[in-house]
Amino acid sequence: MKEKQVARENVVIIAVRCGGILDRKQVEDMLKGRALTDAIVEGDTLILKGDGFEERVPCSSVLREECLYCAAPEPVEADHVVGPEVKPRPAEDEYADIKEFEKKSPEERWQWFSQEIEKCIRCYACRNACPMCYCSECFVESNDPEWVGKGDDLPDKQFFHIIRAFHTAGRCVDCGACERACPMGIKLRMLTRKIQKDVKELFGGEAGKDPDSPPALATFEPKKDTDDFTG
Ligand code: SF4
Ligand code: SF4
Ligand code: SF4
Description:
It is a single chain. The chain is an alpha+beta fold. It has a domain at about 95-220. It has eight helices and five strands; from the N terminus they run E-H-E-E-E-H-E-H-H-H-H-H-H. It has helices at about 25-30, 65-70, 95-100, 105-120, 125-130, 155-165, 175-180, 190-205; strands spanning about 15, 35-40, 45-50, 55-60, 80. A hairpin with a 2-residue loop joins strand 3 and strand 4 (about 55-60). Helix 6 (about 155-165) packs parallel to helix 8. The mean pLDDT is about 90. One iron/sulfur cluster binds near residues 120, 121, 181 and 188.
């Protein structure tokens, strides 16, 4: 709606309260190779059953990381809300890891980024899963002009991820769909959340919370946009 793709009066929003998504990887690690025959959620307990074992763990201990920080388990805009009420998350510093990352030198950050992105196989599952990546032609598929090479070279992969992260600036709601979709386990949210934090600090905007706030990348204010890139 904010990006003028649908008009509010043309949609009926049925929102489902969300208690969080269980992290399949964490559950698999917990099972240590044992085969699962059944998984049941009862209240806040996850019951895992297999041949000769049954384990019970609190759901909250195996939630996806983005769910731990979710600022809106209760829908912010809806005509109808369904599902049981969700307990508010404990107040935590959602950017603690980003602040640690910011303490690194530019060279160390670049090294971390390069190592992480080296794993990318350019399947584009992250982009395809992203609710904000709905362009009819993505820049990576454009041939005229060709913005980025189509191969497997590290610079092309880096370029793809830097540009995509910037395309989500001020728009990414940290749903985590990109990271969940990645078959290579790349920590894409380190990029998108770093930009999310910068946008919040520089412009005060938070995607998904205020439909009337101006979009960060489509707004220019001479007093706020100081052109200071030294930080
Ligand atoms: S976390 Fe952000 S970039 Fe990733 S899929 Fe969700 S909206 Fe897109
Ligand atoms: S990466 Fe950029 S160009 Fe490609 S679909 Fe997403 S927003 Fe559009
Ligand atoms: S989903 Fe993962 S491997 Fe595929 S393009 Fe995105 S980052 Fe690369």
